Prior knowledge:
By secondary structure, this protein is α/β, with parallel strands linked by helices. α12 (337-346) links the parallel β18 and β19. The radius of gyration is 24 Å and the shape is globular. The termini are far apart. The site of coenzyme A has 27 residues, from β9 and α12.
Amino acid sequence: MTQATYNELYDLSLSNPEKFWGDAAKAIDWITPPKTILDDSKKPLYRWFSDGVLNTCYNALDRHVEQGNGERLALIYDSPVTSVVKKYTYTELRDEVAKFAGALRANGVNKGDRVLVYMPMIPEAVITMLACSRIGAIHSVVFGGFASKELATRIDDAKPVMIVSASCGIEGKRVVHYKPLLDEAIELSTNKPSKCIIYQRPQEIASLVEGRDVDWVTAVAAAEPAECVPVAATDPLYILYTSGTTGIPKGVVRDNGGHAVALKWSMEYIYNVKPGEVFWAASDVGWVVGHSYIVYAPLLHGCTTVVFEGKPVGTPDPGAFWRMISEHNIKVLFTAPTAFRAIKKEDPNGEFIKKYDLSKFYALFFAGERCDPDTLFWAQDKLNVPVIDHWWQTETGWAIAANCLGIEQLPIKAGSPTRAVPGYDVQCLNENGQPIKDDDIGSIVIKLPMPPGTLPTLWNNDERYISSYLSAYDGYYLTGDAGYIDKGGYIWIMSRIDDIINVAGHRLSTGGMEEVLASHPDVAECAVIGAADQLKGEIPLGLIVLKAGVTRSDKEIVDEVVALVRDKIGPVAAFKVAAVVKRLPKTRSGKILRSTMKKIADGQEYKTPATIDDPIILEEITEVLEKLGYNQHLTA
Ligand code: COA
Ligand code: AMP
């Protein structure tokens, strides 16, 4: 823990960001150390360490080996679904990565090229990402729960020269056939990659397309290890697509230099872990949490990271997390509250916790969605360690607000992710851009410049970056979250200002789902809302109006639209409930009243909007939602 207080460090980070981040940058090995710390010559687009040169993979692997820590564990793979546990030392992981980087290069991947990664939670996913960064290629990982069409959209935007995938993933007991999904995505895309490297898992051997697909083992056997390639601090390390307000996802870009500096800093100051300790983010490499805290941050800091191919429950029981913590000496666990709600549901009294020795466990961090106080209290009570809710998003890449255990632990207020992390000037503004004080809800924004590690732009799209994030309030980044900041400076994130919903910690666009529903030939119009769900936080709920003259049964059409969303977006959308309604409630100007419908679904009080076209429709909608089991509070 540092000697400085939170207030001292926070104030310094805002009053003299160049000193603050210039000092933090010394913890990274640079090929050319940066002289320019913050480059604001292209405001509002800021760049950190713009004349610095480094290699992220070198900092994550090679330098630990060179410092004599090659025998330290870098990665533990624990897969209850295949009963495999495999461990890699830093030397072993560096060698595997160097060899795979050589295989990428031998198959045509060069510095600046994009490599799309579509893989389950196996070490080869981490190896691929690090291998890309080793040779200066830009990876773009797509979460395995997305279907072919989503994959194709990302292929067309990133234009990868290569895709790395695996024959299959394992979701509990279900085998996910990755290869056919990949083949279909390539078929659908216009920018077809010239090569694919496929990791064949023993559970399923995929058929390879001649001339395009190369078997992982064969590719590696034929390759020479590749050395680390110098890249500019501002060169992209990766693109990660995240839901926007339409079906077209946003390609969040991460640079090399700012990212390495910020993540290394965060390990010490936010999570309070030391090199050599075991850090586990129970997430997926397809999400930002996986990028930052399964792959890069723990390795940049010389920790041991964990790749877990399992679920909080069912693999095989709700004791999975506790087994992991005790077997692998895990100091810090980072996961989404939904995972704990799943555990709590199956083991409310924490009987499984008692079976394991958790004496080395130091702290639990939650993110991905608002942590409801019940879950926080349950975890505190059962685990007896600090339970820290922290708030961030794909765009920032690391926490915006947290209780920074490496600085000093501030009092915990359940429901708040505590205060802004050093580097982030978080404010709450009203519609006119005026600061809101004390407990009034407004738009949560971050004053520019944001700290290193946050997105410099969207892939090939500065304009969309500026229009989506920087235009609402001059000089501020729009987080898209609404909430308030209380008198003590604690931040409360309450909801989104757009159509994004949060399902089991996964960020999804209802607009994207509406596009799919609207593509059904019998659907005239539709709305998707995020209804409150005890386990997943929110789940999507579709309301559809049929075209005149459609005579098929409602059930048939509902089943089809449910299947269509699974097919077009993927199982991760968790779209399982839809209903046919006669009409949708709208304002007189034709805007669908989604938030009013959400309130009805959640059983909350609502005011009939003065601008409503026909109030009777709300009664019709209420009746339909009640038949589906919603609006519980009002009917109870
Ligand atoms: N590949 C293919 N399919 C996937 C997948 C993947 N990588 N991840 C999830 N899916 C599928 C699931 O199998 C499920 O399919 P189903 O409809 O056939 O059951 C569907 O997508 C929805 O998945 P999910 O919402 O995750 O629900 P779940 O019932 O499988 O599990 C939890 C519920 C709470 C246990 C699970 O969501 C969880 O562990 N969440 C943690 C969230 C997290 O890690 N968030 C990242 C930010 S920290
Ligand atoms: P993602 O980009 O997928 O990480 O999702 C980011 C969004 O999830 C944020 O903009 C918030 O809406 C929500 N979120 C993440 N963490 C928290 C948290 N600790 N509290 C409240 N909301 C959160």
